[in-house]
Specification:
The structure holds two protein chains of two kinds.
Chain A: H1 2-36, H2 43-46, H3 58-71, H4 90-93, H5 96-104, H6 106-111, H7 115-123, H8 136-149, H9 159-177, H10 179-183, H11 185-218, H12 224-231, H13 236-241, H14 243-266, H15 284-290, H16 295-298, H17 313-320, H18 328-339, E1 345-346, H19 359-365, H20 370-374, H21 391-400, H22 412-421
Helix pairs in contact in A: 1-9, 1-11, 3-8, 17-18
Chain B: H1 7-11, H2 14-20, H3 46-65, E1 71-72, E2 87-95, E3 100-108, E4 111-117, H4 130-134, E5 149-150, E6 153-154, H5 157-169, E7 174-179, H6 185-197, E8 201-205, H7 212-217, E9 222-225, E10 232-236, H8 247-256, E11 269-274, H9 279-283, E12 286-289, H10 295-307, H11 317-332, E13 337-341, H12 346-358, E14 366-372, H13 379-391, E15 394-399, H14 404-407, H15 411-418, E16 423-426, E17 440-441, E18 452-457, E19 460-464, H16 477-484, H17 491-503, H18 508-518, E20 520-522, H19 539-548, E21 557-562, H20 577-581, E22 589-590, E23 595-597, H21 599-602, E24 613-619, E25 622-630, E26 638-642, E27 666-667, E28 672-673, E29 675-686, E30 690-691, E31 707-709, H22 710-715, E32 726-728, E33 731-733, E34 751-756, H23 765-773, H24 781-785, E35 794-799, H25 808-811, H26 813-820, E36 829-834, H27 843-847, E37 853-855, E38 861-863, H28 873-877, E39 884-885, H29 901-904, H30 906-909, E40 924-925, H31 931-943, H32 956-960, E41 966-970, H33 977-985, E42 990-991, E43 1003-1006, E44 1008-1010, H34 1019-1022
Parallel strand pairs in B: 7-8, 7-15, 10-11, 10-13, 11-12, 15-16, 16-17, 21-26, 23-25, 31-44, 34-43
Antiparallel strand pairs in B: 2-3, 3-4, 5-6, 5-17, 9-14, 18-19, 19-20, 21-29, 22-30, 23-26, 24-25, 24-29, 27-28, 32-33, 34-41, 35-36, 37-38, 39-40, 42-43
Classes of the chains: A mainly alpha, B alpha/beta.
Amino acid sequence: MNSFLSRTSYWVLALFLALAGSASAQNATTAATVTKQGVTPGGTAGAAPATAAGGGDAAEIAAGDALFKSNCTQCHAVNEKVVGPALSGITKRRPISWIIPWVKNSAKVVASGDDYAVKLFNENGKQQMPSFGLSDKEITSIMAWITSQEGQATAATGGPTAGNAATADGQDAGAAGGAGAGAGKYADILLIVLVVVLIVLVVTLVIIANLMKDVLGGRKDLDGRDIEILEQRFDWAGLYKSPVLRGIVGVVAALALLYAGVQSVMAVGLTQGYQPTQPIAFSHKLHAGVNNINCAYCHTSVYKAKSANIPSANICMNCHSQIKTESPEIKKIYRAIERKQPIQWVRVHNLPDLAYFNHSQHTQVGGIQCQTCHGPIQNMEVVYQYSPLTMGWCINCHRETPLNTKGNAYYDNLVKLHDKSNNAVPFTVSSNGGTECSKCHY
Amino acid sequence: MKYWKGIEELDNSPEFAKKAFAEFPDFLPVKESRAGEAEDASVAPRRDFLKLMGFGVAAATLASCETPVRKAIPYLNKPEEIDPTISNYYASTYFTGSDYNAVLVKNRDGRPIKLEGNPESPITRGGLSARGQAAILTPYDGGRLQHFAIKGKKAEIDAVDRAIQTGLASATGRIAIVSPTIISPSTKRAIAAFTSRYRNVDHIMYDVNSASALRQANGGVLPAFDFSKANVIVSLGADFLGTWISPVEYANQYIVNRKVNTGKRTMSRHIQFETALSLTGSNADVRVPVKPSEMGAVALSLYNAIIGGGTAPALPDKARKQVLAVANELKANRGAALVVAGSNDPAIQTVVAAINESLGSVGTTIDLTNPSYLRQGDDVRMAQFVRDLNSGAISAVFFYNANPVYNHPQGAQIKAGIAKTALSVSLNDRLDETGSLCQYQAPDSNWLESWNDYEPKKGYLSLAQPAITPIFQTRQGQESFLRWSGSQQHYYDFMKEGWRGIIGANGFQAAWDKVVHDGVATGTALVAAPAPIAPAIGVAEAISRLRRSASAPAGSVELALYEKVGVGEGSSEANNPFLQELPDPVSKATWGNYVAVPRSMAVKDENKWEQGDVLSVTANGITIDLPVLIQPGQAEGTVSVAVGYGRTMAGKVGNAVGENAYPLAQIGTDGIIYTNNVTLKKTGANSPIAQTQTHHTIMDRREVVQENTLAKYRENPKEVTEYEKIATPEGLEKPNKVSLWQDYQYNNHHWGMAIDLNSCIGCGSCVIGCQTENNIAVVGKQQVINRREMHWMRIDRYYSSDHHKTEFEKEGKLKTYAAMEDPSDNPQVIFQPMLCQQCNHAPCETVCPVLATTHSSEGLNQMTYNRCVGTRYCANNCPYKVRRFNWFSYYSNEKFEDVNGHMFTDLGRMVLNPDVTVRARGVMEKCSFCVQRIQLGKLEAKKQKRRPQDGEIVPACAQSCPTEAILFGDMRDPTTRISQLLRREDGERAFHVLDSINTQPNIAYLTKIRNASSEFFPEEENA
């Protein structure tokens, strides 16, 4: 009986583990799918030419793509109304001779009494479109790009860069999910079936045992010893007093405590998931996600400096001098400007002073997407720290990530040398000295 | 029976009993007292230390559980050109009355954090002096006066202005403005505006280290010298590489003719007659020690030997022979010769001017048509001012960055005189010795907060632009003068207006923008020309004066005053901890002045002085007490004392460091004479001198530093350097042929450095450049004495000995080695910059138990502070002794608050380089080859998708060198200058220090070549 019990407990344990495993595997897959919904993360830097669907010149469309993203995305989308109207079909609605002066100085066109312009102005809450110092050629290339994008799904506005994001994040998800994702759904189904079968088996066995007991209890020809066996109850007190079991429980408990202790000590100073309340309820979801504004529009130096730059109030004012001026949150910005008191944001991502980190090395040179480290920022209402930002996390990535050497003359000779000596392994960051101490500590 | 070890044990006094149980003295000086303070009893015992440490660990663990909330505060309105964490460079000019340098200011997030030489400048050509490097600390100096004041008490700017204007309106007597040399055309215009508003205004300029005799002797102008055109340079006591007039400019010119290579095997020849062993004398091919009283005789004998003529006062034999030899060399190099004299005696300067004239130097090495505008001070007018001040003729006095109470020999009289004036105003940047005596204080802003222009040489202009808004409530001096003269114009507009006359009104804005961008311009400014000076005496009169000049009374000791390369004249530099801790290039002493005496004087029977014995030095009826430093090379019968110390109101750093030697100078009829006869007396006290290196001779250890003669180099460049060979079964081999190690493979870069010992003049600019770039702590006098200075880069100075290996057979090895430790009375000096050699087979790397020091794939020897546990094995195992251990938390230990203010206070910390960690207590640190600059340079290249260009990545030391002695680059790329240089010099002058131990350094040195007949002995021995 004893042995039967230990066997059942083993099975229950196995069952539990199997369930937990499949659940975590599933979690990882959802995380990966979340990141696949791209915004416009790479921006102009990583932009590859779009397919010449609209028939225009590919180079022109590519230029238009870049220009659109750096100038227009904060208010316009191609296939839906954001702040300004959807631009799909604009070239059919208005001639280019009308569009160019409008982009350059819309106020002038409205003031000239142009019917369409006045109507447009009134339809959009009398909100004026700011003037843009673009050349005629630049405006036509933007139009070419818009034409090429017409009719495509909203999610595709991200264009080719979103695809990049997906591949980069796909790797991450693969690493996180571990073996679970690879074994696929067959294992899950098999396990569930097995569990159901086992439960049925146990229930059946209990029913059979009860039946047999009843049958035996009905019989009168049993002697004392048989009755004793029949009436025998499981000796719980004996189990409780068993030194073996006590020992096992004790050891397991001690190990669990130790594990928890080590985990909590290791977590000292770790702030993964840190999500402080900010002085202004700024939503990345609304700006980066829904409105598709390029990250670099606000974080101006992310491609050129160590710091990505927290936007100054004058960048907010580029749009919010016109948009949502009545919102109490935006009024906080006005107050800050009036009082000449800069907004004191709470830093979410904190690296210790002894570690040197440079954004431009990773974004501009490495071609890494913002989401790789910052997570699904386009879905965050309030920003939280997505990655652990530990040295182990940095080093792991440096070991696994292949260097972005394509088209960069700095690496040409290094790639050749690498290919000559060990072509089989990828040319990772660490194989170029990316895990040496003084790459980050000095 | 009782045995005792000493009388104390026999008595068994309570004190002895206590000590008997403490076998080792308390070893951790956690709360060691500062030098000068009484030894207190607060030395923590070990148990307390453990208790504290235990508590500290617990507290740190608890504290770290909750991460502090950190703020990110962006600009409200971001200026377009500023991006956080990107450095901007603005051209500006450093000039504080003596040393002129065109600079680039490195600005980071709105704060100036580093100064570098401006390569566009035709005068300083990208060089920057140690003082210029250290000037970055001054705007953040807590000793500055932070507001306008009346009698030292804070007052509103308007109130001070009103009071001063009322005082000026009611002034009955003359109004005097006292300032150091002003070379700014616009500042002079601002003062002129003031002068024209009030009648009777005198603007008196005086130089702390005056050159008025030099101007008198050259028709009222200060000649512009060109050392690069001279084949023979003779200096009579002018320290032109260290402190005289414009050292960076001169060093830059001087070195042109001192560099050699196989293609150019010629060098200029440099002969120095001087009293104290100066930086310039250390670099001379021939150095002749003479007394100050003999300098006139040297000049006159030289005059007689070249031009011919009568008699001269007698000279010692050695000096006389040298003068004759020198005269012949000068005569053989007519048109390419230059004689300079540092004396402020018009007779000497007149004779020297006549010599130059006859040698045809005017027009070649001396330019009188485009003269220098530095040192415009007029000693005679200053002396008149002192008399007027005391007679009551002056009713209002303005001190514009001038502190004559401290730095003028007649300071006491000026102090008395200020009290007699009706109105006294100080524009000095701090409440100093003079400013504190004035009624009103209207502090000038720092030059890094100001607009200004400069004309150091006729036709050569440069600008200063603000790199930070004024930190305190100060106002630019020029603007103050404009306000007091009734103008409301901003100085910037006022200055721009004046520049229309220089760069023309047509297309002014574009031209102006270019000048502001470049920092330098050429043009003719009309107002900057110095005021005329009293006419010179004739040559005949000068000669007769020199003949008459009485030699010093027999048996008296002659004193020569000199300026230090670091602290200089001791104005704002005195409160600069970088400069106080910069070792003197020759004596290697820091923190304070001393009496430099020749050994012959110290060992005399009646003296028996030892290093550190305090002497009282008396002259002019004034006595100061200073410790003795035995200085090889000091002329017999003379002593030298540095000025610039002994400040009482400079600030926390500079107060009470050394003694003020200015009152020991003589006031002659023509100007200040920086020599005197003194009496010396031993006081019995002892005051240790904080030296970083003592009497090291090279002891024929040619593995460390190598030198040879030009004659030998001409003959065969392949024989000037001795390469160590080691014995192997295959015979003698280069040390790197035998190795237990696997060699590294460098695929990407292999950083290396070459240091030309021929070009290094030992000025120390690199030391300070390194210190500012790498956030290196200042440790203070006591810790320097404890050998705990933190400089990552040092300049080793070696003296030659009178003895040589050739005496082994005659005298025996041991005796000869012992004798070789003593430097010669007039030693030859060699400088060797020493920093981490970035060894390829680094001994430090192998002994670190925690892998805190490792080798990088680019050849760097990396030091990881956060991994270091402080065993110090690496420092023990380093043959070059370049690793530095942090004994204290220099940024938070209150003991270092005074000396290390730039790490201590929020104000001071603004100067720290944000790219470099401030190291904590208990970790080792060392030169990193400025890895932050390497990383930045590589990143820029990668961003632009190219390889880094040669010369794009420059460490701070190479950047600051005024003589381009340090060359840095990628040795893996065969086209870089360093690769070419090393290929060319391999087997000729390039050598590695301690080559035989096979550490394979990435730093190569180039053998020093002297233009002298013997590499071992000074010239005179062979004469």
